[in-house]
Amino acid sequence: MPIRIPDALPATAALESENIFVMTEFRALHQDIRPLRVLILNLMPTKIATETQIMRKLSNTPLQIEVELLRTRSHEAKNVSREHLETFYRTFDEVRNEHFDGLIITGAPVEKLDFSDVDYWDELVDIMDWSTTNVHSTLHICWGAQAGLFHHYGIDKHELPAKLSGVYEHVLEKPSSPLVRGLDDRFFAVHSRYTGVDEGAVRAHPELEVVASSPEAGLYLVKSVDSRRFFVFGHPEYDADTLRLEYERDVRAGIDPDVPVNYFPGDDPAREPLCMWRAQAQLLYTNWLNYYVYQTTPYDVTCAGVEE
């Protein structure tokens, strides 16, 4: 089934060029199907790239998805035009009275700041609080996962000795979880971050459970016991060249970054990187949508998030 997004969104052309079925708004209006409403709070500076990456994962499922994009009003984006934001994004004030089957909160390049020092932190707190009553299931990614753990469960982040960047091998700690159904016993996933969370505090929290982790990179998949909140500490949405673009950006900035681990063949940045995480990333999004959104969300979307 297709993903339903605005006709003029840049991601539309990119996805269609990959033979992904993108449904026009006109055609969607003439179908008697209740699509899943998924809201993406895009906190990444590379907004158009992130939109396309996440929508690519959402679109490759048998479900019809209606995607809406959310931005923070309290932060001025510098890497995308105001016209793009005003055309395709909504603000929290515009959606606060609505209900959604799913919410995705992306990462953000603010890891080294204390949460309270992030200029949109208060607004993000309002959105996370709102999600408990107006969203059926929320997927938090990278810094978004750290922010969600801190706000909902009081588990803070800490700075790592060096940036964790690369493709790491992971193991399933709870292979019976539908979230990882179909994943191999050992799989690769991307991490790109300067901070981590207190793994011991996560494992000890009675409302949280660890689904997958890495001996090198630490926690990867964590979920709430009630299956309403999901935390992904990597970047499953990344394209094959995203880590390379980040690495080259840091080189140009004079940061002298380490070469991303297990990414370039022979650890040679001059060689084309291999994408070893695409399949697990797609399964992760598909499983979240199927088992934790579609199969459990109320048919009446206005009831999504409402406690029975």
From TrEMBL:
GO terms for cellular component: cytoplasm. Its EC number is 2.3.1.31. The record marks E111 as: Important for acyl-CoA specificity. Its main location: cytoplasm. It catalyses: L-homoserine + acetyl-CoA = O-acetyl-L-homoserine + CoA. Pfam families: HTS (PF04204). Substrate binds at K163, S192, R249. GO terms for molecular function: homoserine O-acetyltransferase activity; homoserine O-succinyltransferase activity. It comes from the Bacteria. GO terms for biological process: L-methionine biosynthetic process from homoserine via O-succinyl-L-homoserine and cystathionine. SUPFAM superfamilies: Class I glutamine amidotransferase-like. Keywords: Acyltransferase, Amino-acid biosynthesis, Cytoplasm, Methionine biosynthesis, Transferase. Pathway: Amino-acid biosynthesis; L-methionine biosynthesis via de novo pathway; O-acetyl-L-homoserine from L-homoserine: step 1/1. The record marks S192 as: Important for substrate specificity. The active site is at C142 (acyl-thioester intermediate), H235 (proton acceptor), E237. It is found in: Cytoplasm. Signal peptide: none annotated. Transfers an acetyl group from acetyl-CoA to L-homoserine, forming acetyl-L-homoserine. Belongs to the MetA family. This is Homoserine O-acetyltransferase. It comes from Collinsella stercoris DSM 13279.
